[in-house]
Each structure stands twice: as structure tokens, then as C-alpha cells.
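Researcher: Next sequence.
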Amino acid sequence: MPKPTVDVLDNGVRVLCEPMEGVNSVFVGLWLAAGSRNELQDEGGMTHFAEHLLFKGTGRRHWRDISRAMNLLGGQFNAATSTDWVKTYARVVKRDLSEALGLLTDMFLGSEFPEQEVERERQVILEEIAMYEDIPEDLCFERFTQALLLPHPAGRPILGTPEAVSVYTRERLLDYWREHVLPGRLVLSAAGAVERDDLLALAERLLGGLNGGGGADLPGGEPIEGNHKRVLVERDLEQVNFCLGVTGPRPDPEAKLAWPIYDTILGGGMGSRLFDEVREKRGLAYSVGSSLQLVKEGGYLQVSGSTRPEYAATAIEVCREQMQDLAERGPGREEFDTARSLLERGHLLAMEQPGVRASMNAERLLFGVPHLDTEEVLERLRRAAAEDVQEVARAVVDFGAPAGCLVGPLKGAVGLEEVFPPTAHAV
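Model: Next structure:
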């Protein structure tokens, strides 16, 4: 399959198109290259707040008209905010592409943030923040990212804080959004039942008239250093939830995918070391694993799980023992080959989905990472060696005591502070 095409409109909007044979739907999205990590200290949560308000009315459509249009198209519509971008997207049948993209661009460029909707959505976001506080896994993950990454902007909460969200005015939110929506920061990406010429014609009609300069430099961009804290959060729960981690890979055009292979061996589902050792052999947890998270300047490795307080210290110690063993002895041949095979097949399955293709194309462009087609990805997997994975494992261990967060009934967790000496207690 040919690589996606990249075209740039006269005003700087970038347009990505990847036709796919044998599908009847098209995934299309608008990405703005400005996320929570680009917010200033007094702007925390503004990007996410603005994302919510994109559904609340434009100069042409009341919010009811937006909802009705989405229902009539019968596809999937949504929006999301990350540390690096905010996007709106849809998946529709081919004949509805023009109408769907017209709706998305109207929301992006024509939203007016009506006063009464700002107040309603403020309460929705405050409830969203409260919801995350009540979900132990989400609370643990958010406090972990803060413990690992702050003071880097990537460690700030995407939703903002209740104190900040409570005081933002309509005028400030609207000014913030309009100041950021510049042609040079916009990426239109589509994949599936779509043709390049058709998409370019739509992009020119809907986005070609946008002006206001290119893509002026955004705040941020500094390397991730972090403060590597270990935080304990006491909660009246049945289990202790834990997240441990270290900063990880930097963008590398020549990477041989050793980090994903390491992550898969360590905690990537059934058959991984953490699943086998913590759950299957010892019965210490129902859920345990690892994941690799990426942001523009790099990424981090996270090990997470939950267990009863009397088992928490042992579970965490077993996780760290497995990380140490991988560093000292490297992966076995069978587990290395299995992990590489799992990644290969996972990639092939994911590439059948238009949404995965369009999103991957857009984010690679935003991150400045070269596009890799399927054969190039598989070739890099084939080039990876067990020694590369062991080098990653040594880097993880050389990090020292991992940053992290524990949430739950910690007072009943005997020996926990010995295996996870805290640097702070939080509420």
C-alpha cells in the first residue's frame, strides 16, 4: 500500500490522505498542534475546556443542530485532548465525508462558546475531575505522571484543577482558542474510502480561507527531566493501586523498536513476565502489567497493578525483581521471539483500521517522526536483537528507584515503605 500523501494548502494547513482498498468507511480528523503541555502556568485545563465547548454551538449551528447532524450521519463523532494536541474526528460512510468534515471544521473554526454553555460545561468538567478522583486507577496514574514528570509541562493534569476551571471566563477561553487555531498548527488527516483529490478539494473549500499567520512557536519543548518523586495517597479502599515508572525513549528515526519489545516482555499482557510472576505463579493480583507512553519530547515506562494491602509490598518487589533480572540476564530467546511476533501481528491487525492509520499519520507528522509503512515497521522489528532489549532494561534499572504513586489502604500494607520509600504523602 502506498504511503499517505502530504499536501500543504497555501495558508499552511497540512492535509494527509491514505486511501485503503476494501473499506466502505472513512475516518477523518482535525488535529491542532497545541495541547495541555503548551499551556502557561495560569492556563491549566484551558485546552480541554475549549474542546468540550466545540460541541456547544457555532455561528451556524445550535448545539442541538450539531447533535442532530451527528445522529443523522450515523457515524462516530468525538473529540479528545492530549498533552500534545486537541482533535475532533469522525468515522462515516464514504458518501458522508463532505458533510462530516464540514461539521468538524465548523466546530473548530466557528464555535462561539455561548455564555450559558460555558457555565454548564464548567460543571460537567468539575464532575469529570471529581470522577477521576473517585476511580483509584485513574487517580493513581495521574499522581504518578505528576510524580515522574513535573515540573515539565507534560506532567500537568490535562483536565486542569478545580480551582482553575472554576474561574475561566467565556472571553478568556474564546481568546485562548482563537489565538491557537492558526493554519500552520492544523493537520487534516483521513484514511479509508477517500481519494486525495476529493479530500484536497474539501480542505481548500473548508480550510483554505483560514488566515491569521502560520504556526508561531508554542510554549514548551524542553527535554523531560522530571523530579522522580514517590507519592503515597491514603484511601479507604479494598486494594492498593500502584504505578511505578521511569522516563524512557526519545524520538529516534532509526529506532529498532527495542523499547516496545522490552515493554511487551515485561508486562504486555498474558505471557509477560509480570503476568506470569505476579498473577499466575503467586496469585498476588488480578491486574498487573506495563505500558509505554509517548509524548513529543520522549516518553516513559509505567508498571501498574492492584492488590490487597497485605500483598502490596511483595507484588511491587516482584515487579522490580523482574526488571532487575531483565537488566542482568537479558530476555530469553523464546520470550524475545514471542514478544516480537506479538508486536508484528498487533501492528498488522491495527493497520486494518482507518482510524488507526489516520491518527498515526497525523501524530507522526506532529511529532516530526518519519512515516513508516508496514514493511518498514516489520523490518525494524526483524533488525532488533535481544542485546538491544537488554540495553533498554539496563537503562530502566540505572534510573534508580522508580518514581511512582500508591493509592489505597496503605496503613495496612506491612513493609511497603521499605520497598517503596516515599518522598511525599498526598491527599
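Model: The mean pLDDT is 90. The CA atoms of residues 35 and 85 lie 4 Å apart.
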